[in-house]
């Protein structure tokens, strides 16, 4: 049965590539696979550095999206933050103006982890635009170090950057013991991302004493319902975030945010980073919000995205999906797919 189920998944699979406006996480082409089932479309798009076992949870999410059901939303619209990559201060200011004036976002997440001087210039530029456009202190700033600091670097940076008013810092250090040390020396609240989605068993985590906020990314955590169980188990404030998804894949993250009824801005505004999408009108914030709904690819956009993928990469992605299936997803999602 697992072999037949995998074959059925591969028969509907479409490998896609979406060009980025600028490099993000070193990526200039966001690649992945769409699968189709009776419930709609699912997206399998783990980054290249994920192991087969870790990628299997991304496949769980895609299969749940295509074959399962999502909980009824408590909210039909969710607040989102905009995201500023590690760009220069002038570009950061321009991107923030667009996020505020064009997309209605009042919360900005900034990538940091370069030189402290560059990070401070970027954060200062964003704060200046927010204060000018919205009023002093009205807009909120989050920063994300992507586990790039040592304890000493984190403490120094957060004492400096904290002067600009930070809602929280995301994953300052890779090691949880280091994060605990940082948390004891700074006043900026600590959020964890990589420590959660990169855990061998996220459900076994106990983050008390390590963090104030949990970043929940639905795709690497295995889908909407698995993420809901994790949120309940963690018993701490959460922020729902995406994984540089297409508009189709982003629907799972918005479903989670809607099911939780969260009022905190979610990290779901990454559609603005894509130069192309799987739909003609990408899901981007309007009035600082996006709608909780399923999204299906549009034929023309999907065909263009397919054309960005070489034959070798298409073969690689199909093999990767199969590897993720046998690395654990088949046991967890086989019953959901059933007899095809």
Structural commentary:
It is a single chain. With 340 residues, the protein is an alpha/beta fold. It has two domains: 2-69 and 299-337, Enolase-like, domain 1 (2-Layer Sandwich); 77-291, TIM Barrel, CATH 3.20.20.120. It has helices spanning 2-12, 52-67, 89-101, 116-134, 151-161, 176-183, 194-197, 224-234, 247-260, 299-307, 311-337, and strands at 14-24, 27-37, 40-44, 77-79, 82-84, 107-111, 140-144, 168-170, 190-192, 213-217, 238-241, 289-291. The strands form three sheets. A seven-stranded parallel β-sheet has the order 5-6-7-8-9-10-11. The protein has a three-stranded antiparallel β-sheet with strand order 1-2-3, sandwiched between helices. The chain has a two-stranded antiparallel ribbon with strand order 4-12. The longest helix has 27 residues, at 311-337. The radius of gyration is 20 Å and the shape is globular. The N and C termini lie close together (9 Å). The mean pLDDT is 97.
Q: So what's the CATH class of the largest domain?
A: Alpha Beta
Q: For the record, give the distance between the C-alpha atoms at the N and C termini, rounded to a whole number.
A: 9 Å
- The order of strands across the largest sheet is 5-6-7-8-9-10-11
- Please count the beta strands (DSSP E, at least 2 residues each): 12
Average pLDDT, rounded to a whole number, is 97
Structural domain count: 2
Low-confidence stretches: none
The largest pleated sheet is described as: 7 strands, parallel
The structure class reads: alpha/beta
Helical content, roughly?
40-55%
Rg computed from alpha carbons, rounded to a whole number of angstroms: 20 Å
So, CATH architecture of the largest domain?
Alpha-Beta Barrel
